[in-house]
Amino acid sequence: MFKFLQNTKHAELISRLKIIFCVFVICFAQLLIGCSYVFSSTLLAQLRKPTSTLKLNSEEASWIASISVLVCPVGLIITGVLTDRIGRKRAIQIVYIPMIISWLLLVFADSYEAILIARIIQGFPFGSSTCEYLYIAEISPTKLRSVFFSTVTLFVGLGIMTEWLLAMFFHWNALSAVLCAMSVAGFVMVLFVPESPMWLRAQGRVEEADRVDKWFGLKRADISVSASRPSNDIDVPYWSLYLQRAVWKPTLITSAFLFLQQWSGVYVLLFYSVDVFHDCNVQQDGTTLSLLLACARVTGGITFTFLHRLRRKTLMVISGVGASTSLFVVVVYTLIFRDVAHPPYGTVLATAFIAYMFFNLLGILPLPWILCGEVFPMTVKGTMNGAVQTWGYFIMFLIIKLYPSMVLKFGIEMSLSLFATICLINSLFGVFIMPETKGKSLDDILSYFVTRKKNGLNENL
Question: Which residues form the Major facilitator superfamily (MFS) profile domain (predicted)?
Answer without folding.
Answer: 22-438
